[in-house]
Every structure is written in C-alpha cells, then in structure tokens.
C-alpha cells in the first residue's frame, strides 16, 4: 500500500469557468467541506486580472475568511509579479506559477510568450523563497494544445529543465484540455524523474476525453506525489476551447481507495459535498459517483 496527496482545485480551477457565480461565503464553505473530509492541500484562489476571470475577483476576501491551522496548506495561482504581491499580502501558504508550453495558448492565457512566462516564474520563485512561501510550477498544455495541436515530450521536458533552474519545491504537469493518454504520462514523468530526481511531482488531469482517471493511475506508477482533482468534476480553462471537466475528487478517491492507496481523505463527506455543490451551481455535477454511490454500499 502506498500513499498520495490530493490537491482540491474546485475552489479555483473548478469555479473559474463556471456559469454560476458563487458567493464568497459559499466558496469558503466549499473549502471548509473539503478540509472536513480530510483534504490538506487546497488551491483556493487565483490572483489574476478580475476582468479576465471574474469568478476569481474575490480572492482576497476568500483568503481572509478561510480557516487557518489544522495542517492545511492554501495555494494561490499567480502568473506575474503583480499577482505574486497580491498572493503574499493574502498570506497564502503556497504559490502555483503557470508556464504554458505553447506560444499561442501562453499569449491567450496570460498575455505573454513562453520566454516571458519563464522569466516571470523565476521572479516569483525568488520572491516566494525570500518570504518563506512554498513554490510549485505548473507546465500547462503539456499533453496537447487546443491551438497548436500535438506537443512533443522533448518540448515539455526542455521547458521543465528551464523552470527547474529556479528551484521549485514541486513541478506539475497539466493536461489542460484533457488530451493526454497513459503512455504520455509515463514518458513525461519518466523524463522528469531523470532530470529532477528528488523534486516532488504533481499531475493535473481533465477528463474531457474520458482518459483522466487512467492517466491518474499511470501517474501513480511513476511516483507522482500529488494528484489534483475537483469536487464534482467541475472546471475548465476560460482561454482553452472545450477544456471541460477536471477529474472528480470523489471518483478519483473511490478508485484510489479500492486500489489500497492511502490519501487521508474520506469518501462519504465528498459525496455529500458534491451534491451540495450541484445545488449551489444549479446543475448536476459531472462526477459519476454521487449518482451510483460507493461500492459496497
């Protein structure tokens, strides 16, 4: 039996592209529910331009209201120096900087090219280190780009080598549009293990094309430290067409628990919270387990 950490991303990646607008109080309750189920890493907010991502406009208010302590680490997504300043002022425990692998999506997602994004990441890493804040860098569109198509493993791993120069505490691979397959997971995680032995890895999968859970299981075989998931399976990137559906926290947890993988998270509270979230957003969430229930009952 082995263990893996779960990062709950519904408060950020889940809600950022959701048509329904949740109140700050509901966002905090979503976080509280995840913590009550045993989650200890939460991507709570993003510090981005509120005109471009209106659902994240209350990032500071959310961070001011979340419960502190109990070993919970709150992550804020940042893209540039201004976002980094906001994140430090809001007292996040971790910053997650995004570097998109392709030029086209990088321009659309954060208004700069890949080289500038790498420079932004280097500055973010230095500032976070000085402030004693943990850093993670995420390579987005690592499994395929909605505009440029296939992305080679060499492209991803070369960019990984550049970002590793700034000494992240963790490096993550994100399948932003849910295009990846298990063989890609094995190739990329195997390449990272060779280039950065000892650096913890995290994977962020979408289930857009029904490969997300298979990819998560493949990542386990290559020693991934943390898997991202979103309560109810909601989420998507506002700047990547058809980037729908993170893997659902409750569906992933069911798979892991049946495999004997420890997470420290309880399933039943997640099921209840997925139903609660569906009520809040006004539709049934994409995750399957709340409909069928766990087995055995």
Automatic annotation (TrEMBL):
Domain Pyruvate carboxyltransferase as annotated: residue spans: 4-271
EC number of the protein: 4.1.3.4
Keyword NADP (UniProt): no
PROSITE patterns assigned to the protein according to its UniProt record, in alphabetical order: PYR_CT (PS50991)
GO terms (BP aspect): ketone body biosynthetic process; L-leucine catabolic process
Keywords, in A-Z order: Lyase, Metal-binding
A Pfam family matched in the record: HMGL-like
A GO term for molecular function: metal ion binding
NCBIfam families recorded: PRK05692.1 (NF004283)
Protein name (Swiss-Prot/TrEMBL): Hydroxymethylglutaryl-CoA lyase
Organism: Lipingzhangella halophila
Taxonomy of the source species: Bacteria, Bacillati, Actinomycetota, Actinomycetes, Streptosporangiales
């Amino acid at each position: 039996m082995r263990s893996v950490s779960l990062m709950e991303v519904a408060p950020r990646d889940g809600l950022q592209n959701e048509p329904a607008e949740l109140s700050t109080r509901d966002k905090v309750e979503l976080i509280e529910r995840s913590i009550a189920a045993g989650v200890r890493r939460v991507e709570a907010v993003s510090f981005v331009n509120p005109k471009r991502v209106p659902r994240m406009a209350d990032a500071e208010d959310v961070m001011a209201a979340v419960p502190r302590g109990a070993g919970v680490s709150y992550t804020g997504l940042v893209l540039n120096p201004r976002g980094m300043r906001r994140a430090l002022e809001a007292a996040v425990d971790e910053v997650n900087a995004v570097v998109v692998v392709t030029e086209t999506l990088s321009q659309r997602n954060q208004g700069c090219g890949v080289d500038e994004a790498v420079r932004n990441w280097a500055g973010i890493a230095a500032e976070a280190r000085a402030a004693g804040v943990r850093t993670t860098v995420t390579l987005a569109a690592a499994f395929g780009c909605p505009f440029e198509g296939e992305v080679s493993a060499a492209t991803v791993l070369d960019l990984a080598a550049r970002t590793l120069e700034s000494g992240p505490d963790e490096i993550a691979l994100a399948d932003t549009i849910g295009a990846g397959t298990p063989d890609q997971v094995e190739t990329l995680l195997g390449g990272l293990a060779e280039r950065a032995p000892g650096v913890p890895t995290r994977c962020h999968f979408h289930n857009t094309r029904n490969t997300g859970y298979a990819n998560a299981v493949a990542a386990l075989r290559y020693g991934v430290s943390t898997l991202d998931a979103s309560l109810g399976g909601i989420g998507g990137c506002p700047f990547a067409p058809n980037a729908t559906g993170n893997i659902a926290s409750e569906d992933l947890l069911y798979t892991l628990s049946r495999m004997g993988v420890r997470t420290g998270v309880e399933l039943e509270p997640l099921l209840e919270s997925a139903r609660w979230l569906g009520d809040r957003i006004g539709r049934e969430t994409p995750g399957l387990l709340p409909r069928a229930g766990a087995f055995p009952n």
